[in-house]
Amino acid sequence: MNELNDFLKNEIDLSDNSIIVIGLSGGPDSMALLNILSKFNSNLKIVCAHVHHNLRKESDMEKIFVEEYCQKNGYIFEFLKIEEYKNNKFSEEEARRIRYDFFESLVYKYNAKYLFTAHHGDDLIETVLMRLTRGSTLKGYSGISTITKKERYEIIRPLIFLTKDEVMNYINDNHIPYVVDNSNTSLKYTRNRYRAQILPILKKENPIVHQKFYKYSKMIEQYDDFVNKYVDNIYNKIVIDGKIYIDKFTCEEKLIRHAILERYIYFIYGDDIVFWDDMKTELFQKMAYDLKPNISLDFPNNIKGIKEYNLLYMIKPDTSEEYEYEIKDKVELKDGIIEKVSESNETDNYVTYLNSSDIKLPIYVRTIKNGDKITIKNMQGTKKIKDIFINEKIPMIKRKIWPIVVDSQNNVLWIPGLKKSKFDSQKTGKYDIILKYYYEGR
Fold first, then answer.
1. Is 14 helix (H, G, I), strand (E, B) or coil?
2. Which structural domain range is residue 289 located in?
3. Which residue among 10, 159, 296, 423 sits deepest, i.e. has the most Cβ atoms within 10 Å of its Cβ?
């Protein structure tokens, strides 16, 4: 517990009235985390996010338990029930995506700085072993990070410093109620087999083996950071307009080539990179050395890998469609909504304040076009929008459909969620048009 408390004290800002979101299943891990954080600072504003996966009949009871516990102890309770899965078939990948989209929506709703999840030291060991067995990226081999930095918040996993036994001891010592998910003991799930059959052997060899795995995880992260700093200097010379130039790529050392592909694949898949493995990376890399000038391969999530002479790249055909709509009152897009509003107190990149006398009406929202540039607010000169997408690490499959707001003369007024232009007025300035962007889950 000392290491955990030091981490919360020195690495995380949990000052009075801080707003945090916790993924709260009602199980012992998340209930222990909630108790630890509330004791660390009793003046925290805690939002408890509970997801009903609609798989077990006990889930209804678990929802009631968590909701009543939150009401009794003064925590904000937020709830999501997954009504259906694609093709009426449960997928851990889909459930995870829905769960984290929900968590993120609450982070933005309450303007929280942190999302806390209850992964502990045993989870770290299981994850590392599973990825070593299956194959993963260098970053993936590090398992679970204590801190994951997102665009506007951080995901924090402080229980990484504790074993499952230590979590249960804390629960029992502090008389904390919890619910039990019996599916966690079923050996039909891969993680449960590692938990029941492999972890006991490792712990018998070394009772503090979780500390060794944590040290390994941090070391891999450091190596990954070092390699990435090198790749930072060469990436945009090898990957141009979302395409890998094979002649430049093959001149690099094997380790660097692999790191370039990892970064490229992450831009394509985003958070779904956890479901990628090194075998697919090797298949993609082999395309660069194939003697055929034009080949293609199908990858997960309807992504297609393509080699065209000296170019290697990935595309997702069904998300490449162009669009252009006039913004009158509200425009519904594939991943969000842009709406004219009468007032707003926000000043972030999800709202812009425009003066109709400075622009040429009407206003449109469309997809990116070749040569699109923007004069960023409070900056001199123009910047290519494709370079902004690269710098902001927008996945390739999202760049083609990301909304660009322009006036009737194609002046870029705003890149919703990313950058404001010189046409944006100060909140206290002169404006008569307010546009707000609600992206999926916000």
1. coil
2. 241-315
3. 159
Tokens in use for 323? 């669009």
Query: Which residue, among 304, 258, 298, 263, has the nearest Cα to 278 in the 3D structure?
Result: 258
Tell me the residue type at 339.
Answer: E
Please report which confidence band the pLDDT of residue 397 belongs to, taking 50, 70 and 90 as the band edges: low
What token pair was written down for 348?
Answer: 């972030």
Query: How far is Cα 63 from Cα 80, in angstroms, rounded to an integer?
Result: 10
CB burial of residue 237 (10 Å; 0-12, 13-18, 19+): exposed
**374, containing H or E segment:** strand 373-374
Q: Which residues of 252-268 are buried (b: 16+ CB within 10 A; e: fewer)?
A: beeebbbbbbbbbbbbb
Quick one: what percent of the chain has pLDDT higher than 70?
97
Same domain? 334 vs 298: no
Burial class, 129, CB count within 10 angstroms (exposed 0-12 / middle 13-18 / buried 19+): middle
Same domain, 302 and 398: no
pLDDT at 189: 79
Q: Which residues contact 412 (CB under 8 A, 6 or more apart)?
A: 372, 373, 374, 375, 385, 404, 405, 406, 421
Q: Are 341 and 434 in contact (CB under 8 A)?
A: yes
Per DSSP (E only), the strands in 120-251 are: 147-149, 154-156, 239-240, 243-245
Whether residues 245 and 129 share a domain: the answer is no
Question: Phi/psi of residue 13, each to 5°?
Answer: -95, 95
Judged by phi (left if over 0) then psi (alpha if -120 to 50, else beta), residue 245 lies in: beta
Please tell me the distance from the alpha carbon of residue 263 to that of residue 258, in angstroms, as a whole number: 9
Per-residue pLDDT reduced to its tens digit, 153-172 = 999 999 999 999 999 999 99
Q: What is the pLDDT of residues 282-300, one digit of tens each?
A: 999 999 999 998 898 999 8
Residue 224 lies in a domain: no
